Amino acid sequence: MDKRPDPPGEPALLGTFVHRVLELLCAQPAGTRTVERARELAGEAWPDTQNDPDYIALGHDETSQRDFKWRGWTAIENLWRLEDPDQIKVRATEAKVQATVGGVPFFGIVDRIDVESDGLVITDYKTGKAPRPNDLPASLDQVLLYAAAVEDHLGERP
């Protein structure tokens, strides 16, 4: 019996690409986090995705590859609809946190931790559809776990 895990599907690979570009963008100094810079960073990050064996296994032809890249770019560009990346005070990206929450060990990687005037803010990027209103409380569980782990790890409450 083959115990190897299934390779990640297209949504996971797309999410990884988008996360990487946003991570690179947020590592740029304030004043340079523009749509144009994001496009450059997407171009720089693309070869890693394109050469990933899991991406290659998708068997994209030129048309489906262009569609994949377009969906990735649309997700990246959506950041400007939510916030101005140039105004963010980024404290950390891809921050590894661990804590014991309710007696249960928890480990996670927080996409972004920002500093605002009233404290820390946890940002968890999502490239899929927004949750339906009825599903919203459950969709916040991951962010709440991250917040508890960040507080335990940094000693500051988000």
**What's the total count of β strands?**
3
Helix content: 40-55%
Structural class: alpha+beta
State the order of secondary-structure elements, H for helix, E for strand: HHHHHEEEHH
Contiguous uncertain segments of 5+ residues: none
Total domains: 2
Largest sheet: 3 strands, antiparallel
- Our estimate of the beta-strand percent is 15-25%
Q: How far is the N terminus from the C terminus?
A: 45 Å
Kindly report the spatial arrangement of strands forming the biggest sheet.
1-2-3
Mean pLDDT: 88
Shape: globular
Q: Count the helices. How many?
A: 7
Q: What Rg do the Cα atoms give?
A: 17 Å
Tags for this model:
158 residues, alpha+beta, 2 domains, three-stranded antiparallel sheet, 19% strand
Describe this protein's structure.
It is a single chain. With 158 residues, the protein is an alpha+beta fold. The chain folds into 2 domains: 10-86, no CATH class; 89-154, no CATH class. The protein is 47% helix and 19% strand. It is built from 7 helices and 3 strands. Strands 1-2-3 form a 3-stranded antiparallel β-sheet. A hairpin with a 2-residue loop joins strand 1 and strand 2. Helix 1 (10-26) crosses helix 2 and helix 1 crosses helix 4. The mean pLDDT is 88.
